[in-house]
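Issue: ligand-bound run for adenosine-5'-diphosphate - logging full I/O for the record.

Environment: standard queue, default settings, no custom constraints.

Inputs:
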Amino acid sequence: MAASDAEIMLSYRGISKRYANQLALDGVSLDCPEAATTVLIGPSGCGKSTLLRLAAGLIQPDVGEVQFEGAPLSTGNLRSARLRMGYMIQEGGLFPHLGVRANVELMARELGWSASRRRDRLAELAELVQLPAALLDRFPLELSGGQRQRAALMRALMLDPDLILLDEPLGALDPMIRVELQRELAAIFQRLHKTVLMVTHDLAEAVFFGDQLVLLRAGRIVQQGPAQALLQAPAEPFVAEFVNAQREPQRMLTEAGQGLSAPVC
Ligand code: ADP
Ligand code: MG
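Outputs:
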């Protein structure tokens, strides 16, 4: 389905957001269509995480409005909207004083899920992200970075959310697991028709996941659209610079006479 025909699940309307004297977002409007994956990319500090925090209702815009299924997010509907979102913050954000199981189950317990339903869902998710069951009883600090990240993913997916907000979800994984989990996740999103808004600093990952890519710079959207458009028809020099910077390792190999036959992205 073309993005323009789809229902819009999440919509940012003319958002500006300032932290103290730092302007983080400057007039951002963006629609995230249902059952599609939107990927936010751009240099560190350009406002990617701020967009996710706004969707999750952790912060409010100074100007503009965030809409969830057409209704502005407000104190009245935030809790019900939030229960339909799975949010994985950058670095995972697991509570250090709770074991993995308790972290993942937290909201399900609060919602009164039975022990057997929680156990079944946990087992399903552990298999999905390939976290050995023995690790569920450890504390986050007793896990490797990659294991922590997989546990955080489990927590974000626990309630089978309609909207999944992922802030650099695969950042701490080693390359082999990363590629495997990328494939698994993409298959899940597609199979379950999930609406996903994901942040990554890795262009190849953005291309892999994104039905739509959104490139930000200093709080503004520079270009948005399918990956092909960003790669082949950059809207301004910055887009080409950003793309080329990520191709640098391949260029170095090519110059050294060891070029890969397939392009990096
Ligand atoms: P990104 O995720 O793209 O790296 P962020 O959305 O986290 O960027 O931050 C956007 C800008 O806002 C950055 O300049 C950052 O330093 C600033 N910023 C983010 N959070 C805060 C905060 N809590 N207080 C002050 N400045 C912040
Ligand atoms: Mg960030």
